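Tokens in:
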């Protein structure tokens, strides 16, 4: 799997995140858990979910004894208790893997996890080497899709295009929103 890399996202690590101090974090579409483990190491009480039971099982196997709560859950039908329940929400590369017809619903769902005073981090492809033929996933997010995360009381703090030279995703979005 090309997304199964050993380190947390370089774009996540580049952010100067404050210590978690026990605040709640949620990782959307966590896969094997590298980003979730990074947030937990910063002191966040981290919940990480994926629709794939296999991915959750792999995350638990790779991180035995982890404080991260790995959960099988559906972005389109999350537990009601998650609504505005997290101080930090990370959406990294999940929405870009979804077909265009369901992205707006996914974006709304992601934003709904952010608690008052909380922060949403969005990391996603802005371009890919596959753009010319439309193959994918990933399908790059448009600026309008990135801006759509800033709804329902979420306000943009920064929306940046960052380079990822030497990768299949040479230009990436790194966006932060707060509620």
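Residues out:
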């Amino acid at each position: 799997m090309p997304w199964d890399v050993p380190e947390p996202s370089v774009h996540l690590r580049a952010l100067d995140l404050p210590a978690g101090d026990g605040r709640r974090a949620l990782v959307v579409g966590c896969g094997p858990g590298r980003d979730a483990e990074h947030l937990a190491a910063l002191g966040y009480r981290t919940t990480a979910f994926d629709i794939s039971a296999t991915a959750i099982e792999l995350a638990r196997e790779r991180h035995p004894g982890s404080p991260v709560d790995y959960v099988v859950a559906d972005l389109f039908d999350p537990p009601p208790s998650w609504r505005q329940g997290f101080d930090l929400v990370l959406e990294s590369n999940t929405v870009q893997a979804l077909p265009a017809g369901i992205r707006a619903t996914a974006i709304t769902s992601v934003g709904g996890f952010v608690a008052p005073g909380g922060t949403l981090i969005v990391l996603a492809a802005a371009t890919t080497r596959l753009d010319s033929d439309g193959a994918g996933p990933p399908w790059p997010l448009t600026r309008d899709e990135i801006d759509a995360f800033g709804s329902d009381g979420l306000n943009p703090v920064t929306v940046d295009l960052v380079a990822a030279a030497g990768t299949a995703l040479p230009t990436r979005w790194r966006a932060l929103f707060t509620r």
